[in-house]
Amino acid sequence: MPGTENRGGLRRIRWALWGLVVLAVLVVAWIQVIGPRLSALPDAGTANLGRGDYRLAATDGSTFTQDSLKGAPSAVFFGFTNCPDVCPTTLGDIAGWQEEFAAKGKPLRAYLVTVDPERDTPERLRDYVSWVPGVVGVTGAPDEVAKAVKAFRVYARKVQTEDGYTMDHSAMVLLFDAEGRYAGLVGYQEDPARTRATLEALLGA
């Protein structure tokens, strides 16, 4: 009947409009809240970034402390092995940086510090980072990981799911000079030209 068809058409239009409203809200939330939180540090001084009394186990057999950042330029990234997209993408980016700058005789040390110590054992992390030369996995007791999260002022939170949990976390790569001082960051999927300039400044390439 014509009336029924008209009501059905109006209902579809109404649902489509609501869908657009929801999408707009999500976009605004990403731009104003989620995106900045994942790719930027809090508004605070960075002089002591990375400083703290954390002691964690590294997959190369060493102990990861604040002193591990000294001696050579370093990149530090917080993630976890069950990460569906951000962590694999970032490891791929780091692999590209390693290849480019190692060819110039300017290697970059990189550390992946887990935000999921309950599942990420040293063995699991070692397997996870093994395909990227120069990347060392870092894990430890939950309280020690919490100290590191605080020291580097990154965001990490457990999120419950239907089949367990996942981790919400900062996505930027933090950079440190050979003295262990904070030297900037590379945002998630940042413009390649800007990233290259940042790393060249860090490595003196």
UniProtKB/TrEMBL annotation:
GO molecular function, one term: metal ion binding
InterPro entries documented for this protein: SCO1/SenC (IPR003782), Thioredoxin-like_sf (IPR036249)
Domain of life: Bacteria
SUPFAM superfamilies hit by this protein: Thioredoxin-like (SSF52833)
Chain sites annotated for binding Cu cation: 83, 87, 169
Disulfide bond is among the record's keywords: yes
Transmembrane regions listed in the UniProt entry: 15-33
Family, per entry: Belongs to the SCO1/2 family.
Record protein name field: SCO family protein
Species of the source: Paracoccus yeei
Lineage: Bacteria, Pseudomonadati, Pseudomonadota, Alphaproteobacteria, Rhodobacterales
